Amino acid sequence: MNARVNAASSPPATRRARAARLAVPTGILAAVAGAFAYVGAVDPNEPGHYPACPLLRLTGLYCPGCGGLRSAHAVVHGDLLTALQANAPAVLGYAAFAVLWTVWVVRTLRGRAFRLDPPPLLLWSLGALLLVFTVVRNLPFGGWLHP
After folding, report:
1. Distance from first CA to last CA of the chain, Å, rounded?
2. Mean pLDDT in runs of 10 for the chain (147 residues)?
3. Is 107 exposed, middle or buried (0-12, 13-18, 19+ CB in 10 A)?
4. Which residues, including other chains, have CB under 8 Å from residue 42's CB and lie 6 or more apart?
5. Cβ(25)–Cβ(102) under 8 Å?
6. How would you class 19 by CB atoms within 10 Å of its CB: exposed for 0-12, middle for 13-18, buried for 19 or more?
7. Assign residue 111 a region: left if phi > 0, alpha if psi is -120 to 50, beta otherwise?
8. Which pLDDT score, from 0 to 100, does residue 9 have?
9. Phi, psi at residue 23, to the nearest 5°?
């Protein structure tokens, strides 16, 4: 006997339970899509639309997030090279979000829990990479990393 049940023949209670499980991932995707749509419509390269980075304004140093809005704007418009030039770690973050969100939804649809529990070594490594990126982009030879 086949234990699989397709969505069309599943009882309404099952469909409601599946919809309830997908509510949080769907809400998060809607929020992220809304933010990207706004940044895509309101160009961060035009002055006056977004506040300046406080670290850049006070110290003249680029933080790891500097260029993130320009990067998101370029991604929305399909310009991957400009996005990478504006802030490469941000583009990698967008891709990581897309992969993790997809895994979350697939696991949710299959009735499995999704738990994100990265090992400390991974978190420390990512932090170290961001620190190196920040230091290099602020050194004279790291000018090519400026947003």
Report:
1. 59
2. 52 75 91 96 90 90 92 96 94 96 92 89 96 92 82
3. middle
4. 49, 50
5. no
6. exposed
7. left
8. 55
9. -60, -45
User: Is the CB of residue 105 less than 8 Å from the CB of residue 22?
Assistant: yes
Q: How many residues does the chain have?
A: 147
Alpha helices by DSSP H, 5-139 = 12-21, 23-41, 54-59, 68-76, 80-109, 120-137
The count of C-alpha atoms lying within 13 angstroms of the C-alpha of 141, restricted to the half-sphere facing its C-beta, is 0
CA distance 144 to 120: 31
Q: Give the separation between CA 142 and CA 61, rounded to whole angstroms.
A: 12
- The reported pTM is 0.80
- Measured CA distances, 139 to 21, 55, 87, 122, 133 (Å): 47, 16, 16, 26, 10
- Report DSSP state, residue 52: P
Structure tokens at 144: 């090519």
What pLDDT does 44 receive? Answer: 93
